[in-house]
Amino acid sequence: MPNQKRIVLLTSKDNFVWTSMQEIIPMIERSWCELAQKENHLLTTINVEDSTPAQFMPSLISSDLIVISCFNTKIARFIKIIRESYKIDTPFFFYLHGLATIGLWPLERFGVLSLFTSNDLFIGTCEGDLESMKISFENARTQKIPFTISDSPMLHDHLSASAPFVYIGRISPQKNLDQLITAYSDLPLSIRENHPLYLYGSEDHLGYPNIGQKENTYLEKLKKLVETLNLEDQVTFKGFVHRLDIQRELGSNYIFVSPSTHSDENFGMAAFRALLSGATCVLSDWGGHKEYKNHYPNHIYYVTALLTDTGPIIPLKQFTETLLLAVRERQQGQPGFPEAFSMETIHLILKNEMARLPLQNESLKPKSLAQILISQQKEFESQEDIQRCFHSFSDPAFVSFFKAYAK
């Protein structure tokens, strides 16, 4: 068949250590499986934990496209053998996840960055990803493709005068939860009595690894903050609860809050689920959160992310006022799944990008920003701090990526 493509999908369960990846990677796999079935392409899926490149070499050599759903050391091994050992120049479609805001230094760390070319497509999920790649590389080909879900939680309960504020995600300083609790404490008591604050999630014990700031007691500090502010009757730490159980427990009668300035906040799956359920959201104007404003104009209230020498902040007065505004103005959600996030839209974008192949093929060219990050990461690794790539929050490189995500 003249338009039939032979596609190889490299994927991995090793990244399932992150709860969000347990949902996102299978979604990526499903999107390619459904596209291949619909367009009559030949798809070979390789789970790198259970396979060697040699087992699939005929498929790799004859492929028209190689899709890489995530990145880890085992994926890196496949990339090296494909491009370096066997000289296969089949284009890659590479899902970035959180790599755009650190200049792709892990690809350099594991010896594969130089194997990428201008013919490869780097897939992000927000404009911040694309802007981060733009300031890091001269000739990187990029495209924004959203994530989606198949179990759409469109519940749309009737509004109640008593609805909790809800955070769902990792308990991490990068999520600015101390600032959330402080802003919440400034709400009138009458509001807090009808709108308690629930925090769902486990502590990640990571701090700010890109900055080299470790934090093992953030949850404990948050609980002490709640005690200091006399909020024990209004703030509850729920711990990790499966998303479907949260969905059943809350319905849509809640106000979802995420003031995150996490460098990996490139989509916001919990926020997306909340919006689909009909809930009102208070979100940081940041990364993936920014993508929702055109699709849910009456159900999102944004707070500004600012950068200081001690880290990102959400202005306290604005935060409290926005929480109050969300309570007073929230509306009944309307059923419907935005077309921009549908599997059909994802397939259309993928088809258009595949139709552009092949393109001019030259080595990927890092700009000075990416080169600086790679150099700094090597320096920190020599000091046994392998995940660090920024000197501080005032590091010009950190400021550049912060601006890209807050733009």
List keywords for this structure.
407 residues; alpha/beta; Rossmann fold; 2 domains; six-stranded parallel β-sheet; 14 helices; 14 strands; 15% strand; globular
In a few lines, what is going on in this structure?
The chain is α/β, with parallel strands linked by helices. It is 36% helix and 15% strand.
Can you give a write-up of this model?
InterPro entries: Glyco_trans_1 (IPR001296). Pfam families: Glycos_transf_1. GO terms for molecular function: glycosyltransferase activity. By secondary structure, this protein is an alpha/beta fold. It has two domains: 6-148 and 343-394, 3-Layer(aba) Sandwich (Rossmann fold); 165-339, Glycogen Phosphorylase B (Rossmann fold). 36% of the residues lie in helices and 15% in strands. It has helices at residues 21-39, 57-61, 73-85, 105-109, 127-136, 177-185, 189-194, 218-228, 243-250, 269-277, 316-329, 343-355, 368-382, 396-406, and strands at 6-11, 42-47, 65-68, 92-95, 121-124, 141-144, 165-168, 197-200, 235-239, 255-258, 280-284, 300-303, 306-308, 311-313. Strands 2-1-3-4-5-6 form a six-stranded parallel β-sheet. A six-stranded parallel β-sheet has the order 9-8-7-10-11-12, sandwiched between helices. Helix 5 (127-136) packs antiparallel against helix 14 (396-406). The longest helix is centred in the first third of the chain and has 19 residues, at 21-39. The N and C termini lie far apart (45 Å). The model has no long low-confidence stretch (mean pLDDT 93).
